[in-house]
Specification:
The chain has 194 residues and is mostly beta strands. 7% of the residues lie in helices and 48% in strands.
């Protein structure tokens, strides 16, 4: 009996704090401030920085930014797992966001905000243990889409899928089929992502 309890304790203790979740959040349209995506078999969700701050100066697991002016009209949803030892960061860049529907993805230039290409694109970085460093992946021209399912009352909900190419290896691809988000622009700045 004692050995069974000890074995269970060892198993539970060995679970990595890098495993942010094993389940994707449900696809909702209520402003739940959720995000989830599976990449290479691992589920990524937002987590406020505690370990590696891969999100830059803003210590949030998820935030929304954008610019509306004569030259620019974009929104960006930035998702960070800053609580694990290696982290994760994704930027979803949407141009001229005005209605629900499909926003086809274009080739990413791996830059955000006004330095981004002026088209819908997604790019992200994940840790690659085979090189002991981060690998960057970006959307490919007409190989995916962001589908906005709700855009009303501060709520931005949708899903995304597509084929993504590695920045330093144009022969390596990742296919994403299950990305989803449901945010409330009014409450997101105050949300906590443990």
């Amino acid at each position: 009996m004692k050995s069974s309890i000890l074995f269970l304790f060892v198993i539970l203790a060995s679970c990595s704090k890098d495993s942010s979740s094993t389940l994707l959040p449900p696809e909702t349209q209520v402003g739940a401030n959720t995000f989830g995506v599976t990449i290479k078999g691992k589920v990524y969700v937002p987590r406020d920085p505690k370990g590696t701050n891969v999100g830059g100066a803003t210590p949030k697991g998820m935030y929304l930014t954008g610019l509306y002016s004569n030259n620019y009209n974009y929104r960006e949803l930035i998702i960070v797992d800053g609580a694990s030892s290696v982290g994760f960061k994704m930027t979803i860049h949407i141009e001229n966001l005005s209605t629900i529907g499909a926003y086809p993805l274009k080739q990413s230039n791996f830059h955000d905000q006004v330095d981004s290409v002026p088209f819908n694109n997604i790019f992200f970085k994940i840790y690659d243990y085979s090189i002991s460093n981060y690998a960057y992946y970006g959307s490919i021209e007409n190989q995916g889409e962001i589908n906005i399912t709700k855009l009303n009352g501060g709520i931005l909900s949708g899903n995304f899928s597509g084929k993504f190419v590695r920045y330093d290896n144009p022969n390596e691809y990742i296919q994403i089929t299950d990305g989803r988000f449901d945010i409330n622009g009014f409450t997101l700045p105050y949300a906590v992502f443990p």
